[in-house]
Amino acid sequence: MTSPIDRLEEALWGACVVQGAAPDEGTLVRWQTDELAHLRERFSVRPLPAEFDDLARRALAQWQEREQVACARLGMAREAFLSEFEKLREDYLGGGQEWQRTALSLSSEIHGAVRNMDWVNLFSWVLPNADRERAETHRMVGRMVTALFYVELLFKHVLLDDQSLSLRKIEARWRLVSVP
């Protein structure tokens, strides 16, 4: 049986997310190099249809359970983890080395908490834009989902020594959920 989060992601992508075409070559090039511009300019999100309210509540409940497990494994509350994550991210973006050790130590405790980038998209920008009434709640969930998946991607980066497109994408989503 498909999880509520997976069902909601699939349903909202079809019902709420509208993709636009690049109006010119310059826009296309910008979208290929600036993931945040790509998300903000290429996609628009329609309001959440009432028929998905129950599914959205079940998806949020499922996430809350997963987050509790991840936090218990980490031995940290959400706020403590996000604080540690911010330090890790700043070190990574600043070219430091400590982030590698931190990513390695955290990844074994959180592996699998966030299934994939589709979950990140759902909680970081689709739900906050589709359900504006609860946008701040969704953005708070999106911060945690994004941070957890970011750590997993950094762990893979350490192992593969690869500066990948995935890290550019996750950074853009982090920036989305971190703006007021």
Could you walk me through the main structural features you see in this protein, from its secondary elements to its overall organization?
With 180 residues, this protein is mostly helical. The protein is built from nine helices and two strands; from the N terminus they run αβααβαααααα. A two-stranded antiparallel ribbon has the order 1-2. It is globular and about 40 Å long. The N and C termini lie far apart (36 Å). The mean pLDDT is 93.
List the helices and strands and how they pair.
Elements: H1 4-15, E1 17-19, H2 25-33, H3 35-42, E2 43-45, H4 53-74, H5 78-93, H6 98-110, H7 117-130, H8 135-160, H9 165-178
Antiparallel strand pairs: 1-2
Helix pairs in contact: 1-4, 1-7, 2-3, 5-6, 6-8, 7-8, 7-9, 8-9
Whole-number average pLDDT?
Answer: 93
Q: What is the helix fraction of residues, given as a range? A: over 70%
Q: Quick one: how many beta strands? A: 2
Main pleated sheet: 2 strands, antiparallel
Could you list the spans in which at least 5 consecutive residues all have pLDDT below 50?
none
What is the number of helical segments per DSSP (H or I, 4+ residues)?
9
- Spatial order of strands in the largest sheet: 1-2
Our measurement of the CA-to-CA distance between the termini, rounded to an integer number of angstroms, reads 36 Å
Taken from the alpha-carbon principal axes, the silhouette is: globular
Nearest-angstrom radius of gyration?
A: 16 Å
Fraction in beta strands: under 5%
Helix vs. strand class: mainly alpha
Give the topology string: H per helix, E per strand.
HEHHEHHHHHH
